[in-house]
């Protein structure tokens, strides 16, 4: 299927503005990141060797020489078209997936920064890891015996103060409030240690999932990353990784093998999220655009 027919409503309907209103008639002008972002956001059709359409989106590669409509030219001198995304991560335990994502932001695999961590267990390993690295830690929800806890609307306001672009659930065991889902549509991801929709839903978490997989006799398992809705593990599936279940596996054996793939998969998906490579098919199915071949989707 042609990429142009896969997606609905992605083409910009804005008219191409006069070039001089943007560049003020200058040729051989060095422009900054902000100017390039304007071109991307409004999808103007300036011709250039590395200014091109991808499934209805305009991509600009900086450092290239772009030909303008009137035969003028300028050099785009910038390191990145898209700024780093700001990530809020939610954990309830050791936070090994959080740690993998954090390390990936440091080595450049993920074009983002973890700006805040949310947990329902302030003494958990993930929260301690965040504090040691200067990442703010927010407790939500508060324990029932504590007075004046943060409300769902307070949580939304707090994430907005941190300018969080996306929310990543990494072993967070509480149901996400509807207010947060409405505030961040198609912007909240969760990872689950089974091939959803199997072995998902309320009560299926941690070792309970792997115990159930072993007891069922299933030959395959693996992690699923999905968008979050108002129920446990029922949002649109974005990515999965298949892991074999061996005849001699215990639940702990399987858990260790699945966890290795969780770390890899969540980093890959977070990278795609931060690079704008997650697109939605007309029937509401999310797809990941290949970085190596933009015409391929998974």
Write the layout of secondary structure elements.
Blueprint: H1 3-6, H2 19-23, H3 33-42, E1 51-54, E2 57-60, E3 65-67, E4 73-75, E5 85-91, H4 96-107, E6 112-119, H5 125-132, E7 137-139, H6 152-161, E8 166-169, H7 178-183, E9 188-192, H8 207-216, E10 220-221, E11 224-227, E12 237-240, E13 243-244, H9 251-274, E14 278-280, E15 286-288
Parallel strand pairs: 5-6, 5-8, 6-7, 8-9
Antiparallel strand pairs: 1-2, 3-4, 9-11, 10-13, 11-12, 14-15
Helix pairs in contact: 4-9, 8-9
Task: Please characterize this protein's 3D structure.
With 298 residues, the protein is α/β, with parallel strands linked by helices. The chain has a domain at 85-288: Rossmann fold (3-Layer(aba) Sandwich). It is built from 9 helices and 15 strands. The protein has helices at residues 3-6, 19-23, 33-42, 96-107, 125-132, 152-161, 178-183, 207-216, 251-274; strands spanning 51-54, 57-60, 65-67, 73-75, 85-91, 112-119, 137-139, 166-169, 188-192, 220-221, 224-227, 237-240, 243-244, 278-280, 286-288. The strands form 5 sheets. Strands 7-6-5-8-9-11-12 form a 7-stranded mixed sheet, with helices on one face. Strands 1-2 form a two-stranded antiparallel ribbon. It is globular, with a radius of gyration of 22 Å. Mean pLDDT is 79; it is low at 1-81. One of its GO terms (cellular component) is chloroplast.
């Amino acid at each position: 299927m042609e990429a142009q027919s896969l997606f609905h409503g992605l083409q910009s309907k804005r008219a191409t503005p006069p070039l001089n209103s943007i560049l003020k008639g200058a040729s051989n002008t060095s422009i900054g990141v902000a100017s390039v972002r304007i071109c991307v956001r409004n999808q103007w059709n300036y011709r250039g060797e590395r200014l091109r359409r991808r499934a209805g989106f305009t991509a600009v590669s900086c450092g290239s020489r772009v030909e303008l409509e009137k035969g003028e030219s300028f050099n785009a001198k910038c390191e990145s078209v898209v700024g780093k995304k700001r990530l809020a991560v939610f954990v309830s335990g050791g936070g090994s997936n959080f740690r993998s994502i954090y390390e990936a932001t440091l080595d450049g695999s993920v074009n983002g920064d973890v700006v805040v961590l949310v947990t329902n267990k302030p003494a958990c390993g993930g929260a301690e890891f965040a504090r040691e690295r200067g990442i703010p830690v927010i407790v939500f929800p508060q324990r029932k015996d504590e007075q004046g806890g943060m409300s769902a609307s307070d949580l939304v306001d707090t994430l907005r103060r941190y300018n969080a672009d996306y929310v990543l659930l990494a072993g967070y065991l509480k149901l996400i409030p509807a207010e947060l889902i409405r505030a961040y549509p198609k912007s909240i991801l969760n990872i689950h240690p089974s091939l959803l929709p199997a072995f998902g839903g309320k009560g299926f978490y941690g070792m309970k999932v792997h115990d159930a997989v072993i007891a069922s006799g299933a030959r395959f398992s693996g992690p699923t990353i999905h968008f979050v809705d108002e129920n446990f593990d029922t949002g649109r599936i974005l990515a999965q990784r298949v892991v074999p279940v061996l005849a001699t596996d215990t639940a702990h054996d399987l858990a260790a093998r699945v966890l290795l793939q969780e770390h890899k998969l969540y980093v890959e998906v977070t990278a795609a999220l931060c690079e704008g490579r997650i697109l939605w098919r007309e029937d509401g199915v999310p797809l990941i655009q290949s970085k190596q071949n933009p015409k391929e989707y998974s």
